């Protein structure tokens, strides 16, 4: 220990005054860090900048460094170098375009999935916007699927939605755990429930009668989507054809092929039946009639309909807002009155 101290004293005789000042500065800085720390050194950005600066002006800075490794200081320096050039690179290049123009580019792309950047740029030029192809491509959203295929499939579904109806059954349990079956028919175009039927003992003749009540006076429907339930007998299938409709059964165990009807069954449960204790068949019919005809079809908004209801609901801007409770206050219908 004494020898080491003597060597340090002899070393001071041969180093310059500047070296001593820098070493004292480094040691004092580390003492400050240790004093404000509890378990481990707590370094701030000012401490990192200090050591990066010291490493650039003092060759022997490693000999006075204790709290971190020299490799850490080098890594701080490289990170600062990257941040500097990232900041500097933002000052050059094409200037950013207005946010309104960016939204217009994305709107044109969404409404016309098959359009290229050049096609959108040409349309923008006709609308009075001067922007190059590369800028348009920069702000276009990247599609995960083939836009041409996606466009064709969505267009097909949209064009056939007003001619398509989905049908299915759901089971509801009463207070005494008795099973009651509900027939549901929903239009794909406006998500409107066209008809529902309730029975405790469903059979083929009853299902055929539900078809008559649903499509007896319907002149627009062309396709009927259903699953492969046993209640859909051969006579049921022939009845669909006699109405001039195309029977479209789904593949076995593929409820996703009849998604809109499956979704409305889930909605009926989540928004209505899960909050009610059904007493009997008559009670269930009354509950569904109140929910469907007084709330779902005429008032409930849908995202797929641009926040409109299945039966078009006009926008009211004048008058006092009043509310009407549905199912004892489970839901409410709002409208304005003079």
Structural description of this entry:
With 338 residues, the chain is an alpha/beta fold. It folds into three domains: 73 residues, no CATH class; 45 residues; 152 residues, Ribonuclease H-like superfamily/Ribonuclease H (Nucleotidyltransferase, domain 5, 2-Layer Sandwich), CATH 3.30.420.10. Helices cover 47% and strands 14% of the residues. The strands form two sheets. The chain has a five-stranded mixed beta sheet with strand order 3-2-1-4-5, sandwiched between helices. Strands 6-7 form a two-stranded antiparallel ribbon. Strand 2 and strand 3 form a beta hairpin. Helix 3 packs across helix 4, helix 6 crosses helix 7 and helix 9 runs parallel beside helix 10. The longest helix has 20 residues. The chain is elongated and about 110 Å long. The model has no long low-confidence stretch (mean pLDDT 85).
Entry keywords:
7 strands; 3 domains; alpha/beta; single chain; about 350 residues; two-stranded antiparallel ribbon; Nucleotidyltransferase, domain 5
């Amino acid at each position: 220990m004494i020898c080491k101290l003597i060597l340090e004293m002899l070393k001071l005789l041969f180093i310059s005054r500047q070296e001593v000042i820098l070493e004292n500065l480094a040691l004092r800085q580390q003492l400050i860090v240790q004093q404000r720390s509890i378990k481990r050194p707590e370094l701030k950005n000012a401490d990192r900048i200090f050591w990066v600066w010291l490493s650039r002006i003092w060759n022997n800075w490693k000999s006075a460094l204790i709290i971190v490794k020299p490799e850490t200081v080098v890594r701080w320096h490289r990170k600062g170098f990257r941040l500097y050039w990232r900041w500097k690179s933002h000052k050059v290049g094409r200037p950013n375009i207005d946010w309104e123009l960016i939204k217009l580019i994305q709107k044109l792309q969404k409404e016309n999935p098959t359009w290229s950047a050049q096609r959108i740029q040409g349309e923008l030029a006709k609308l009075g916007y001067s922007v190059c192809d590369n800028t348009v491509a920069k702000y276009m959203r990247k599609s995960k699927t083939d836009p041409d295929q996606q466009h064709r499939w969505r267009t097909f579904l949209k064009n056939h939605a007003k001619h398509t109806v989905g049908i299915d059954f759901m089971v509801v349990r009463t207070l005494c755990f008795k099973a009651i079956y509900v027939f549901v028919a929903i239009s794909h175009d406006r998500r409107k429930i066209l008809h529902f039927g309730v029975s405790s003992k469903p059979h083929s003749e009853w299902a055929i009668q539900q078809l008559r009540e649903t499509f007896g006076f319907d002149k627009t429907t062309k396709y009927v989507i259903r699953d492969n339930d046993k209640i859909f007998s051969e006579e049921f299938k022939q009845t669909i054809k006699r109405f001039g409709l195309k029977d479209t059964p789904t593949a076995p165990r593929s409820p996703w092929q009849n998604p809109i009807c499956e979704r409305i069954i889930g909605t009926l449960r989540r928004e209505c039946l899960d909050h009610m204790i059904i007493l009997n068949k008559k009670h269930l019919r009354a509950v569904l009639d109140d929910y469907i005809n007084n709330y779902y079809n005429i008032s409930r908004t849908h995202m797929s309909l641009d926040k409109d209801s299945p039966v078009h609901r006009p926008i009211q801007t004048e008058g006092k807002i009043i509310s009407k409770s549905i199912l004892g206050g489970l839901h409410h219908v709002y409208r304005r009155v003079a």
